């Protein structure tokens, strides 16, 4: 496994794959959650990403379920010191936006559910243009001063707003976003690489990308419309979005490289992400320990320059 990677200039260091906690309290119940987190830590990894809103989209859930299960695991396992916990505020309808009042209240709620005294990385889940950046960053700063948060990050920010936020931090001597959480994978590259990546590189941020496997497409399990017919509505949407000439070109390159390494397309997809500049840890989710070990093996997979170039070529927007 590669050496730990920095979360910006926060001083926090992470192993190169983060566990996506969106499955906890939804497709992974309490027993499965505990087993997954135990296996993740035992394998030497340390960054767990969640949000107050997870998993409010599930019928019967309100939100807060993921944090609650992680908190129970902390209490049950005694392994809080083995994990860097990243959570988020702003997107949950119960605690919407980035006003100072909402940030303070949401942080207390998250700390209570997580059964911890400190959030290692507290992220703005989405931008809130109705609140001045100075007010939002000052509110995060108060949490850092109180010892309740160690570092802050941004998710789903445009390049312009991220740049503005970093400038406000400098201008007013406020904490700055040390990380960025964008959508980023071998298929969905342009949004991050064209505008956000230059800001990340200029300011030394760490990137924790989501949808690292393009909602499962890059595992290779969706290759024909018939595959979607057997799947959920999500699977059908994935096929509609990704099952095209470019998507099939990417899968062919993944298959070719995976065969050379006795690996899987998912492992090669994650290894490609890990090899990109300024990536701290792509986020990946699993619902079984077996699935998790398969994904974590990507951290031990080193792709050659030629293989990286092959994947870049196959996934290029203008490839013929």
TrEMBL record:
Top-level taxon: Bacteria
Annotated NADP-dependent oxidoreductase domain residues: 16-314
InterPro entries: AKR_Detox_Biosynth, NAD(P)_OxRdtase_dom_sf, NADP_OxRdtase_dom
Gene Ontology, cellular component aspect: cytosol
GO MF, any single term: oxidoreductase activity
Organism, as annotated: Stenotrophomonas panacihumi
Keywords from the UniProt entry: Oxidoreductase
Protein name: Alcohol dehydrogenase
PANTHER family: NADH-SPECIFIC METHYLGLYOXAL REDUCTASE-RELATED (PTHR43364), OXIDOREDUCTASE-RELATED (PTHR43364:SF6)
SUPFAM superfamilies attached to this UniProt entry: NAD(P)-linked oxidoreductase (SSF51430)
């Amino acid at each position: 496994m590669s050496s730990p990677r920095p979360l910006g200039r926060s001083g926090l260091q992470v192993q190169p794959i983060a566990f996506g906690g969106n499955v906890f309290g939804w497709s992974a119940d309490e027993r499965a959650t505990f087993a997954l987190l135990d296996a993740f830590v035992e394998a030497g990894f340390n960054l767990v990403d969640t949000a107050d809103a997870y998993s409010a989209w599930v019928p019967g859930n309100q939100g807060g379920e993921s944090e609650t299960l992680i908190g129970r695991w902390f209490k049950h396992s005694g392994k809080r010191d083995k994990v860097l916990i990243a959570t988020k505020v702003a997107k949950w309808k119960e605690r919407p936006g980035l006003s100072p009042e909402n940030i303070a209240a949401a942080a207390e709620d998250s700390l209570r559910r997580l059964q911890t005294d400190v959030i290692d990385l507290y992220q703005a889940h989405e931008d809130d243009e109705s609140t001045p950046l100075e007010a939002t960053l000052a509110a995060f700063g108060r949490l850092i001063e109180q010892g309740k948060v160690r570092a802050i990050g941004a998710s789903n920010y445009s390049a312009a707003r991220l740049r503005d936020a970093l400038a406000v931090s400098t201008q007013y001597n406020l904490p700055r976003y040390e990380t960025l959480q964008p959508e980023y994978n071998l298929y969905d590259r342009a949004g991050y690489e064209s505008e956000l990546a230059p800001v990340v590189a200029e300011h030394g941020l760490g990137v924790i990308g989501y949808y690292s496997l393009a909602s499962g497409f890059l595992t290779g399990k969706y290759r024909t419309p018939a595959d979607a017919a057997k799947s959920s509505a999500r699977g059908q949407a994935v096929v509609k979005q990704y099952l095209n000439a470019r998507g099939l070109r990417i899968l062919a390159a993944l298959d070719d490289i995976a065969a050379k390494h006795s690996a899987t397309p998912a492992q090669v997809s994650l290894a490609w992400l890990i090899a990109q500049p300024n990536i701290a840890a792509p986020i990946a989710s699993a619902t079984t320990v077996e699935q998790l070990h398969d994904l974590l093996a990507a951290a031990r997979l080193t792709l050659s320059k030629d293989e990286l170039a092959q994947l870049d070529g196959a996934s290029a927007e203008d490839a013929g």
